Amino acid sequence: MWGKIGYKIALLAISCMLVAGCTSGAGKKEEQAKSTLKVVYWDESYFYQQYGDLFTMKNGENIEFEVVSTQGLYNNQEGKSYVEAFDEFIEKEKPDVLMLDSSNLEKYISDGKLVELDTYIEKDKYNLEGIYPGLIDMLKEIGGSKLYGLSPSFYGNAVLYNKDLFNKYGVDLPHDGMSWQDILDLARRFPTEGDEKTRVYGYGDNYPVQLDTLVSNISSAEGLVDVNPDTMKVTVDTDSWKRVYQLAIDADKSGVVYNPEGDGGFSGGSMEEYYQSQPFLMGRVALTVGNPYMIRNLKEAKERLKDYKPFELGIVSGPVDPADPTSTYNTSMGEIFAINADSPNKDAAWEFIKFVNGEDYARVKSRSDSNMMSRMGFNKDYEGQSLDPFYALKPKISKSYRSWDMLPDNFYSDYNMIKTKEIDLVKNNKKTLDEALKTIQAEAQAALDKGLKDKEANKGKESSSTNSASGDSSVATEESTSGE
């Protein structure tokens, strides 16, 4: 009798291995069931190009993506600011993974809407040591010593220079930790004579460098702010701002900065014409402040232009804040990925964040991405020239974003008109710089007060304030916040 029972048990066991409907088989199948991860990103196809396809190739198809695009938020028809529209979008869509920047990362942390990542990092023994320490420090500073998000890449600048021009004119080579004063002092040691469309310039950029652009670049690197976000007061009539304006005006007058009269820069045409419009790429500028994209352009120009004359590139760290030459305000995080505290798929969300901030992802994307990878050691060099200067300085958190969404839509256009008018008077010796700064502060404050009053009166009716501050990249410091 036991033999018959044993036979039946054995037959049943074999059947269970063959038939998917058995209990053990069903359990195994359930473990391999696909889960859907809802991700916020600005464009679905680009998400897959940047992240989704690589993740799937590495991790299989057990995790599928549902990408909710933020593109429509820039043109919302209800008169909301982008911040308001984004918050409502998140509340409605309830994504698992959020794509944030520094400003809304801080806001979402303080509102308790994000998952602390430290527990996952400790559990998986996830290696943070290979990530640019300055970025981790920045993220922890925003999170009150805890991590709530990670960024696979960052935007950074360094001082690029043409070694051949420095050697030709006998000028000392740049050094690490260059301030704008250092950059422009070196630029003045190059000749200024010759036809402005063919001559050599000490300093230049991809486009002609207008005076207001130079002021903005210098003030940004030194951590100055033109509007105090705590008091909503204009803060340009200070010694620090006067020094920045004077440095820019003197450089502009000296003729060492590339800014040919009537040249608006590249406005369309072939790729060859695009490369030829950039004086640094064409060997006519000694110094520039550039990013990895400019270095990539150097490679492409050599390949595409028949009569291109290559030069030896040098890279050093900078521009720095002279008050703290080990740090920079010119480094910012790219897309910061975080986990929604209300997500039912937190573990899957962490798997995604872990992957896109890992070594395998950095190894692949370092070959094609224009930004620097947060994982160090993968963006190695350009023709033997190390890219380490992009990682050399400690990033400081830009505080400018604190005022961007608080300002009236039209403030910066009014402000820029006021600045242009007053600085032209200084350049033409019709006003002193002290007088101009007092007028800029007074008139800009009046424009700001009026705009804030109108904004409050029209609350809920005004048009989207997206990128209201894009015309000025100044950032805050403790000194400028106090009004100096």
UniProtKB/TrEMBL annotation:
InterPro entries: Bact_solute-bd_prot1, SBP. Residues 475-484 have a biased composition (Polar residues). Residues 450-462 have a biased composition (Basic and acidic residues). Residues 463-474 have a biased composition (Low complexity). Residues 449-484 are annotated as: Disordered. It holds the Pfam family SBP_bac_1. Residues 1-20 form the signal peptide. Keywords: Signal. PANTHER family: ARABINOSE-BINDING PROTEIN-RELATED (PTHR43649), DIACETYLCHITOBIOSE BINDING PROTEIN DASA (PTHR43649:SF12). This is Sugar ABC transporter substrate-binding protein. The lineage of its organism: Bacteria, Bacillati, Bacillota, Bacilli, Bacillales.
